Amino acid sequence: MKKQTRRDFLKHLGYMAGSATALSILPSCNTIGQTRDRKRPNIIFIMSDDHASHAISCYGSKINKTPNFDRIAKEGMRFTNSFCTNSICAPCRAVILTGKYSHINGVKDNALTFDGSQQTFPKLLQQAGYETAMIGKWHLKTDPTGFDYWNILPGQGLYYNPAMIEMGERKNYTGYVTDIITDQALNWIKNRTGDKPFCLMYHHKAPHREWEPGPKYLTLYDDVTMPEPENLFDDYSNRGRAAKEQDMSIEKTMTDRDLKLVTPKNFTPEQKKLWDAAYGPKNEAFRKANLQGKDLVRWKYQRYIKDYLRCIASVDENVGRVLDYLDESGLAKDTVVIYTSDQGFYLGDHGWFDKRFMYEESLRMPLLVRYPGEIKAGSVNDDIVLNLDFASTFLDFAGAPIPADLQGVSLRKVLQGKTPRDWRTSMYYHYYEYPAVHSVKRHYGVRTKRYKLIHFYHDIDEWELYDLQKDPKEMKNVLNDPAYTGIVKELKAELEQLREKYKDTTGSTA
Ligand SMILES: [Ca+2]
Question: How far is residue 185's CA from residue 323's CA, in Å, rounded to a whole number?
Fold first, then answer.
């Protein structure tokens, strides 16, 4: 491994005075209007795992710089109201593959198995003449279907020296998972034969728990103190039992392994040496300090967020490798590049890590899309868009028929800057995994641009209303505030309408 100095890395991020950032030296790719006679585009669908948009600099991150994700935004469109319909790993992936809500595609929670015999967008793309591949994290228990090539991590996979399953055959790799998945993705693109357009799902494990950084970034951020979220010490007053009774707090839930107080076991001697050199002295200082109470929570937050961001630094770097290759090979102009994450994540917000709740930080998904001929460079869109829409969008770009049973809507017009007048003004959400790890109670809800109504219907029967304009951090349930009586009535009607529209009869308290 080539050692990179901290100075080199900061320079790469554009931290040093006088250094050109990756962003400022890129040519403008805005060639709107030249869309006629274009061939059907390739699609590279990049997805990471648990990457919250508030850890991406083009989304205003206060804690890290992500020059390569930003590059997709600068050359394409950034969505500010992109949401998932069920904020947990396997269910999100099943929604994306099928374009259908969890109660229809069958994967309501992480314990359930995806039925690979059902209709998915990769199968439909294959029928439309696309070559399809799935490389990286899959997490759906059954083997992938609808792909000409697949090479996936088993289950969650490992950060270091992972096994991968290539077309049914298990192989062991040495190295760091984010680099390995990228190597496989680039190899696949480079070694394709034939002239079919392709769709590559290039899906990272990072930055999923337990946030093990790659060798190159083990000491990144060692000399900085990350700003804390203003509600790190949330006491959950003004809200119901669901927020109080979760088990996903930095204070109480994090393990020694999460906090790197024990060393993972699957390193090579060289990897272990680097790891111990990075964490050994810091852990010794921590033990000596004997921190208690809020000081201990603060330390845990710093350890957690730095490791999380170190994992993201590797993803950003590797996405940059893919973008560079697309430029060098001339593929960039004919390729739709999407960056997203399976859902958002709490970065100490409300004192939490993990996801699941319909609250903003885990409901939101980053969504950046670049396609030079059709998407205006540097555009920003605030329409309500969902992971449910991806399947229809990909089929639309491929010129393939969009089956009537898909529940999402193609984003192609939105990406062209021509949002249809009847575009959705609200979205429907439903989370199921309870009782289970992290103890987040089952709930469904509706979100408009300004309000969010949530019904925790299982174990308890509680409703919550948030005015996101006045209370963007969702610190006060205003359900019983008389000023909102009319809003509650409207949103309850909207919620019922959406449940009917999407044929969701699950979660009824009746
Ligand atoms: Ca996830």
Answer: 12
Distance, first Cα to last Cα, the chain: 60
CA distance 226 to 222: 10
Q: What's the 210 CA to ligand 1 centre distance in angstroms? A: 12
- Ligand 1 centroid to Cα of residue 55, in Å, is 15
Query: How far, in Å, is the centroid of ligand 1 from the Cα of 330?
Result: 32
Q: How far is CA 116 from CA 7, 44, 85, 131, 502, in A?
A: 47, 21, 20, 18, 21
pLDDT in tens, 320-354: 999 999 999 999 999 999 999 999 999 999 999 99
Q: How far apart are CA 214 and CA 216, in angstroms?
A: 5
Q: Which two tokens stand for residue 483?
A: 């000023």
Residue reference for tokens 């950084």: 213
d(CA 213, CA 222): 13
Looking up tokens 């396609």 gives 371
The CA-based diameter of the chain, rounded to the nearest angstrom, is: 68
Cα 349 to middle of ligand 1, angstroms = 17
* pTM across the whole model: 0.92
**Other beta carbons within 10 Å of 220:** 23
Distance, in Å, from the CA atom of 381 to the CA atom of 420, rounded to the nearest integer, reads: 13
